[in-house]
């Protein structure tokens, strides 16, 4: 189950966030949680695995240009399905926005 989706840039700024379940963090602490997650993911080299564990979640992320697409999933979920989901989602955004950019992501709303 996907609990939340975050899109952050290389500087660690959140460009999009959508929480589908309550993650046990108050809305005021979400920015701290997102910054902590960004500090873990951004410095990782591309040669490392794009799956990390933090607290009770498994995080799957993909980097496209200057954006990181991060999904928080349950530990028992299949990571490869989520990576494929992110790939398909980015391809759809790319077609919809005709070469998606960070500014396009900032104005997404679901």
Automatic annotation (TrEMBL):
Pfam families: Clat_adaptor_s. Keywords: Membrane, Protein transport, Transport. Residues 1-107 form the AP complex mu/sigma subunit domain. Belongs to the adaptor complexes small subunit family. It comes from Basidiobolus ranarum. This is AP complex subunit sigma. It is found in: Endomembrane system. InterPro entries: AP_complex_ssu (IPR016635), AP_mu_sigma_su (IPR022775), Longin-like_dom_sf (IPR011012).
